[in-house]
Amino acid sequence: MEQDPTPQPEQPGGDSIVCAGCGTVAEEVPVTWTCSVEDGARRYFCDDCARANLRAIEGRLDSTWW
Ligand SMILES: [Zn+2]
Description:
Layout: E1 17-18, E2 25-26, E3 34-38, E4 41-45, H1 47-65
Antiparallel strand pairs: 1-2, 3-4
C-alpha cells in the first residue's frame, strides 16, 4: 500500500506559497493573504504586501486612467 503523507489540494507543481511582494514563503495559504490571478498564473500577496499592492494598483489605475 502506498502512503500519501502530504495531501495536495489543488496546487499543481507547487508545494509552497511565495509572496510575490516580499518573498515570504508559507507552506499553506494563510487566510490573510490575497490571491490574484494574472495571465492564468496565481500570485499571492501577504497581508502587508496586499495593502501595498492595493495602493499601488489604485495609484497606477489613477495614473493610467488620466
Ligand atoms: Zn509580502
